[in-house]
């Protein structure tokens, strides 16, 4: 419980002392922030923990910049180092090497009072809500303000406005036991906003929720980001969460950032094996029935009569426009069948995968597939109208 209070900036200091710390932090953030567009930055950060078996590196040479006002997602498998990174940002852990800055302020250089001020400017949303069961919704949200010495009238005004923002005004007097998981998380979000933070940290905020509730919480976070201009840093192991709400994503694998970039680019053209593995649940894999029908190309003979080459055509969204499927079909010529796939839009970029079947054109028919003739010509035409194309076999 003490660590929970520390995380939320609940330290029981005098109002004057807390105010002085906040003023010092604000002054430092104002000076440093004017020189940087980053709300959060990590510069060559490493974190090593001592274990019975020796030193264990949780993070290795991590460098990241989170722009002001964006939703920045950090994704990785369990144990990749995501939570450690978040704990470095709010000062619960100190880096073993490198530097962590929030609004330009070096977190590692702050004293205890400075850390209190930091945590009041850096809200935290937890995976398991961390609500006090003996207090009402209103009291849970108001508690940080009460401990900080905020006058009652101001507390009431603030909490009522926040409950309205998160859609829980009618639940102000309810206790956590009577709330759904999504409602509990909305209380947690309201509580994280009581000190008007500049940065909101979300630690697997939707992983304990069902899919429908997850979407409602993500929509709420996106709405808060738009309305308040709040910088949000969230960690997750679900690519669907990244796709739904984030502007930028960083992929962490074994303590290292292996890929980062705009969400549309990382989804459309993943460049690291860890990213591709995380995306595998969202990729339009061939249904088993279709995969069983696709045969490997013959090595020494022409395609059987009536056979069509199966092409896997991918659009990454780099061109900025919609895929011209009609031009692709015209270029391939003859009978073209769409077997599987789809196109979606991420951050305004149309991207996706189409699995199609097409026969080599008549002027290529005399060339053997084994020598790369007819099939190679067909593949080359497909590549002129897509970002990537490859041959899967024939049907």
Number of helices, where a helix is a run of at least 4 consecutive DSSP H or I residues = 14
* End-to-end distance: 62 Å
The H-and-E topology, N to C, reads as HHEEEHEEHEHHHEHEHEEHHHEHEEHE
In the sheet with the most strands, the strands line up as 6-7-8-3-9-10
Q: Tell me the CATH topology of the largest domain.
A: Rossmann fold
Q: Cα-atom Rg, whole angstroms?
A: 26 Å
Let me know the average pLDDT.
87
Q: What is the domain total for the residues?
A: 2
Task: Provide a concise account of the structure shown.
With 395 residues, this protein is of the alpha/beta class.
Q: Could you characterize what this model shows?
A:
This protein is of the alpha/beta class. The protein has 2 domains: 2-279, Rossmann fold (3-Layer(aba) Sandwich); 288-394, 2-Layer Sandwich (Alpha-Beta Plaits), CATH 3.30.70. 36% of the residues lie in helices and 27% in strands. Strands 6-7-8-3-9-10 form a 6-stranded mixed β-sheet, with helices on both faces. It has a 4-stranded antiparallel β-sheet with strand order 2-1-4-5. It has a 4-stranded antiparallel β-sheet with strand order 12-13-11-14. A hairpin with a 2-residue loop joins strand 4 and strand 5. The N and C termini lie far apart (62 Å). InterPro entries: AAA+_ATPase, ABC_transporter-like_ATP-bd, ABC_transporter-like_CS, ACT-like_dom_sf, MetN_ABC, MetN_ABC_transporter-like, NIL_domain, P-loop_NTPase.
């Amino acid at each position: 419980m003490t660590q929970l209070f520390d995380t939320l900036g609940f330290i029981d200091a005098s109002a004057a002392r807390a105010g002085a710390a906040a003023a010092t932090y604000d002054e430092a953030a104002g000076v440093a922030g004017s020189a940087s567009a980053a709300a959060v930055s990590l510069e060559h950060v490493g974190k090593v923990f001592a274990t019975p078996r020796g030193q264990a590196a949780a993070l290795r040479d991590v460098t990241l910049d989170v722009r002001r006002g964006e939703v920045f997602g950090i994704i990785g498998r369990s144990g990749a180092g995501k939570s450690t990174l978040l704990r470095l940002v709010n000062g619960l852990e100190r880096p073993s090497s490198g530097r962590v800055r929030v609004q330009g302020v070096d977190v590692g250089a702050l004293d205890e009072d400075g850390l209190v001020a930091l945590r009041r400017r850096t809200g935290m949303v937890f995976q398991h809500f961390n609500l006090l069961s003996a207090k009402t919704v209103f009291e849970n949200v108001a508690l940080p303000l009460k401990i900080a010495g905020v006058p009652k009238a101001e507390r009431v005004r603030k909490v009522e406005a926040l409950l309205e923002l998160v859609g829980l005004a009618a639940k102000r007097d309810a206790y956590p036991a009577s709330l759904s998981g999504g409602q509990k998380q909305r209380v947690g979000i309201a509580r994280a906003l009581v000190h008007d933070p500049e940065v909101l940290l979300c630690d697997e905020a939707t992983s304990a929720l069902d899919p429908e509730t997850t979407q409602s919480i993500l929509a709420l976070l996106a709405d808060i980001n738009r309305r308040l201009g709040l910088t949000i840093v969230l960690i997750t192991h679900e690519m669907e969460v990244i796709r739904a709400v984030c502007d930028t994503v960083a992929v962490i694998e074994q303590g290292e950032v292996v890929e980062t970039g705009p969400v549309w680019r990382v989804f459309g053209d993943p460049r690291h094996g860890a990213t591709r593995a995380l995306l595998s649940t969202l990729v339009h894999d061939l249904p088993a029935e279709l995969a069983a029908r696709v045969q490997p190309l013959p090595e020494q003979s022409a395609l059987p009569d009536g056979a069509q080459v199966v092409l896997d055509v991918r659009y990454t969204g780099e061109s900025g426009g919609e895929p011209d499927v009609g031009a692709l079909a015209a270029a391939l010529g003859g009978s073209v069948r769409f077997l599987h796939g789809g196109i979606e839009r991420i951050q305004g970029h149309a991207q996706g995968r189409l699995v199609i079947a097409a026969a080599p054109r008549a002027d290529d028919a005399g060339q053997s597939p084994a020598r790369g003739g007819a099939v190679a010509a067909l593949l080359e035409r497909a590549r002129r109208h897509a970002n990537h194309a490859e041959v899967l076999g024939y049907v």
